[in-house]
Design brief:
Mean pLDDT: 91
Low-confidence stretches: none
Structural class: alpha+beta
Number of domains: 1
Number of helices: 9
Number of strands: 6
Distance between the termini: 52 Å
Strand content: 5-15%
Radius of gyration: 18 Å
Shape: elongated
Largest sheet: 6 strands, antiparallel
Order of helices and strands: HEEEEHEHEHHHHHH
Length: 216
């Protein structure tokens, strides 16, 4: 049986403070870049999944506005909780080489060994990658590329693209430069848009152009 209390002390030692059940925020987050861990338990309580999240609050809000304005009817009711929500979530288990579905089998560990495994993978693998991402420029650099452990395949393309645009414009990146940067990810952007009001699949190019114009 999974007991979250076994995880909390170890994650707290790494600076991840529990906000609510299975949700943690890094105390070392900056005002510009906040870091999270989001865990979930399923499979009869025996499978453990953990995502790490990175967000800039302004970029997150801008991306949500773009999704509501330009993402089509089914996305207009998307809600955002400013304390907990983070659209840039990436599977820790993929980076750490966990088993099927990037999960851990809880019953395969003692309670202590399980807590040590999660803490150890966060400390040994995750922190060296994300601990220094504290400025808008740091976040823009990682979101605008397709590198592990923050690849494009695991996140919503429209929201990520809009955040890249928001951060880029505030860093002085031109609209044309941003357009070129995001061209390789049109498939990921379009895959999450769905159908528009006429029933046709929405164009990722059209969505991106609207976002670029909205950011100016």
């Amino acid at each position: 049986m999974f007991d979250e209390k076994s995880l909390t002390p170890g994650l707290s030692e790494l600076g991840y403070i529990r906000l609510k059940r299975l949700t943690y925020k890094a105390s070392w987050s900056s005002t510009d870049v906040e870091h999270f861990l989001f865990a979930s338990v399923f499979g009869g309580g025996d499978r453990f999944l953990c995502d790490f999240g990175i967000r800039n609050p302004g970029a997150e809000q801008f991306a949500l506005e773009c999704l509501k304005l330009f993402g089509g009817p089914r996305l207009r009711d998307v809600r955002f909780n400013p304390r907990y929500d983070c659209s840039n979530r990436f599977p820790l288990g993929k980076w750490a080489g966990w088993s099927i579905g990037w999960t851990l089998t809880i019953s395969a560990f003692s309670e202590t060994a399980f807590a040590d495994k999660v803490k150890g993978d966060v400390e040994r693998l995750l922190l060296p990658v994300v601990r220094s991402i504290l400025s808008p420029a740091d976040l823009f650099s990682i979101l605008s590329k397709n590198v592990e452990p923050c690849s494009w395949v695991t996140v919503g393309g429209p929201l990520r693209a809009a955040q890249v645009v928001y951060l880029g414009r505030r860093l002085g990146v031109t609209t044309s430069e941003l357009r070129s940067m995001l061209q390789p990810y049109l498939t990921q952007i379009g895959g999450s848009l769905g159908r528009g009001g006429t029933g046709e699949w929405q164009s990722p190019t059209a969505f991106l152009e609207k976002v670029l114009h909205y950011a100016n």
